[in-house]
Amino acid sequence: MPSPFPGMDPFIESQKWEDFHTRFMSALGDALVPVVRPKYVVDVERRIYLERVDATAPVKSLVADAAIYNRVDSHSTEMANDAVALLAQPSIKPKVCTIPYFEEHRETFVTIRRGSPSEVVTVIELLSPTNKRKGTDGREQYLQKIQALLQTKASIVEIDLLRGGERTSVSNPPEGDYFALVSKPKPRPLVDVYGWAMSDPLPRILIPLSIEDPDVALDLQMVFTLVYDRAGYDYSLNYQQKIEPPCSESELGIVQQLLEKKV
């Protein structure tokens, strides 16, 4: 069943983003292969990094090298009762401190290469919340990668399907809820920026290749529709929840109309 929205589904951002990110980039890479082969190779790659989080914040998940699990049966209860006196107090009083805590993040991106040895021609990024969260390690590492790419001969395509967070800074950007930025080595620092509203279909954008070859069209709406259908988001998304980040009053009216049509 298709999404009730004509373009990007805003409920994905807070409910299914990690799953959507991986699926969308894989489908995007698959869509490019038929139009660039055999001269270019399309790789779906993954970036893994650790982001520092507040040591006083609740821990989301832990994987232990050694762990004690609760096993309730008569034998274990007897052992626990015998050991109460031993476990009641530590031998010395500990001091309460904090420890730096890092959370692992995995992000998928697409790289187009050519030649042997392979040369990176184009890098396609789909922004994640950590890339757009001001003052975080994830955003800092992402910006460092982009700055390094800007010094090369590679083209950069940045797709932003998130309404929240810090947007990439460009002069006089277009209006919109969602954006796609295309930066070619020439004529940097000039870039093409696509902007569209939540009520619009995702656009068809041009993906640059080597300078001697024409750009190829990538239909973002086609990729999104394929992912939405294959992932079963029509039933796994909770359309009764509030949209995060919140919508304006006018946007909420549009959302309600679209959801009523779905029913």
Describe this structure as you would to a colleague:
This protein has 263 residues and is α+β, with helices and mostly antiparallel strands. The chain has one domain. It has eight helices and eight strands. A hairpin with a 4-residue loop joins β2 (101-114) and β3. α2 crosses α6. Mean pLDDT is 83; it is low at 55-64.
DSSP helical segment count: 8
Strands of the widest sheet, in order across it, are: 1-2-3-4-5-6
Radius of gyration using CA atoms only:
24 Å
SS strand fraction:
15-25%
Give unreliable regions as ranges. Answer: 55-64
Biggest sheet: strands, sense, closure? 6 strands, mixed
Q: Report the helical percentage.
A: 25-40%
Features:
globular; alpha+beta; 263 residues; 8 strands; single chain; six-stranded mixed beta sheet; two-stranded antiparallel sheet
Overview in brief:
The protein has about 260 residues and is α+β, with helices and mostly antiparallel strands. It has one domain (about 10-60, about 105-260). The protein contains eight helices and eight strands.
Write the layout of secondary structure elements.
Blueprint: H1 12-15, H2 17-36, E1 40-53, H3 74-87, E2 101-114, E3 119-126, H4 129-132, H5 137-150, E4 155-160, E5 178-183, E6 192-196, E7 204-207, E8 216-219, H6 220-231, H7 233-236, H8 249-262
Parallel strand pairs: 3-4
Antiparallel strand pairs: 1-2, 2-3, 4-5, 5-6, 7-8
Helix pairs in contact: 2-6
